[in-house]
Amino acid sequence: MTTAKSSERRGRSKQIHTSKPSVVLAFFSCLAWLYVAGRLWQDAENRTLLSNFLKKSMEQRPKVLTVEDKLMLLGCKDLERRIVEAEMDLTLAKSQGYLKNQLLQSGSSSGKKLLAVIGVYTGFGSHLNRNVYRGSWMPKGDALKKLEERGVVIRFVIGRSANRGDSLDRKIDAENRETKDFLILEGHEEAQEELPKKAKFFFSTAVQIWDAEFYVKVDDNIDLDLEGLIGLLDRSRGQESAYIGCMKSGDVVTEEGRQWYEPEWWKFGDGKSYFRHAAGSIFVLSRNLAQYININSASLKTYAHDDTSVGSWMMGVRATYKDDNRFCCSSINRGSLNFFPPSWPGIEDLRDLCLFRIVFLAMATT
Fold first, then answer.
1. H-helix or E-strand spanning residue 70
2. pLDDT by residue (tens digit) across 6-27?
3. What share of the chain is helix, strand, coil (3-state, %, to 5)?
4. Superkingdom, according to UniProt (predicted)?
5. Nearest partner of 309 among 214, 205, 217, judged by Cα
6. CA dist., res. 133 & res. 219, Å (int)
7. Rounded to whole angstroms, how far apart are CA atoms 338 and 359?
8. pLDDT tens column, 205-220
């Protein structure tokens, strides 16, 4: 019996001894499993981040254009070209008076096309001169409205003072409210050195406001045969690209300080002679030529005088030059002046040959 008990104790001791390593091994196995699981989870997260990074990098890489892509790009360029053409057509339509707010100002109650818009250049110091014209060849009040019903609009053309809103501007505004016979060029500065640019502003503004066959520029020192001019223009209806006036040429004045000095004289060649152009006292442009000035006014070059400036613009288009001797009467030639006094015998007979005569009026300061 003693031997049996001793054997039982040794067996129990052996079982206890063998169970401890198993527990330790199981513990380390759990640690290892946790470590491996953590690494696998971390690697999976890293792979996801890397995948996203590579995807973004691929999107940012320059794309190799296929044939279809190139065709699409060319299509966009063609669309851009069409947009530019549409903008040009819109500008042309605006200049032709298709906008409602411009047609409402056409000056024709019947809505029909006017015969002519006559712009008489004037200045701030010409108040008394304007009153003289209003009492002579230029109608006023109701007579001016009746003339517009016949299709002829007459306006004194003036810009704004260099000091906008000063007494000069206010006087013109007050006079215009009373007489309603001004075309005020808001974007033009009324000054002697700015006179060549005045033609651009006048024709551009007039063609936007009134739909007429012809646009006439008139100096403020002439006595105009209005009915004779209306008859001439009425017979010229339908003539496209008409540039009508007393066509002349002459030497370019190169000496600074002399009258008619041309600062850019060197551009006219070794002969120093002006190209053919209409004299500045009075000349006529048809509607499409006035539209051309309106559309291209920003790029048109001006010279020292408005008549040579307009003449240079007409050289760049297919203008039909009409040299009419009736526009040459009382014109200033180099060194001489043909002047017909109002009381000169036979002056009425000359009306059949001349559309105007130059008159001298005292320049007013009020």
1. helix 67-95
2. 555 555 555 555 577 777 777 7
3. 50, 20, 35
4. Eukaryota
5. 217
6. 12
7. 11
8. 999 999 999 999 998 8
